Amino acid sequence: MKIGMNMLLWTDYVTLELQPIFEELKETGYDGVEIPLGEGSVAHYTALGEQLANMGMGTTCVTSLTKEANIASTNPYIRQKGIDRLKWAIDRAHALKADVLCGPIHSAFAHFEGRPPELEEKKWSAELLREAGDYAKQAEIILAPEALNRFECYLVNTAADLKQLLKAVNHSNVKAIYDTHHANIEEKSHQVAIAHLGSDLQHVHISGSDRGTPGKGQIDWDEVFEALKAIDYQGWLTIEAFSVAIPRFANSINVWRDFSPTEEIYKEGIQLIQSKWHD
């Protein structure tokens, strides 16, 4: 098990200038960071990956699709843009030496058609995730699509939805991420949801019910960690929390206030993980 910190608490575009934050996170006990991929060249991420590797810090990545680049779209041109975007992100994750690329990569984030998902949309998503899995396999990266709550996504909301998608994809490099924030809204039981994902679960976001400090919201962390231990989970436990530090990003995800002080989030968050994991 490794503990990570998602850099979206500070920025949506990580640069070499964030070295002091990397150093603070390493000193606090983190094994690595999660890098959002929205812009930037392969050369940029190669340099960033080398900087983090020299510090002994591992990396994972997170990205998303848009309505203009959506592998579940009814428009074949937009579906092609979607797979192109996934390959773009895989190239940059590989440059970072990341081992996981996670996020809502099964369909467009915060885009709705005014109806439930159709079978064709799920089929297109699975087919193109399988193609992306082939591309990720060459880069030695696990793709981890994420179930999002109903207010941010309509294609995959629950662990059961995600498991169904993974069965359709049927690829060794396409697995699952479990996010405790989304699950707190959509699942009736963390234990049941995590057990249902089982060995397909390759990444976890430790995220508060309000996206603030893990441990200060309404999530039953004892249930979460007991369920992870029950399936012998051995991947990353990465804290994902948000702030208004970057207005452009905050506005895009409907974050209108800081939920907790930044230092409290990463310091108390790691204490929660360490204490629950070793109970």
TrEMBL record:
GO molecular function, one term: isomerase activity
Record domain Xylose isomerase-like TIM barrel: where: 22-274
Record keywords, A-Z: Isomerase
Keyword Isomerase tagged: yes
Isomerase recorded as keyword: yes
Gene3D superfamilies registered for this protein in UniProt: Divalent-metal-dependent TIM barrel enzymes
Protein name: Sugar phosphate isomerase/epimerase
Organism placement in taxonomy: Bacteria, Pseudomonadati, Bacteroidota, Flavobacteriia, Flavobacteriales
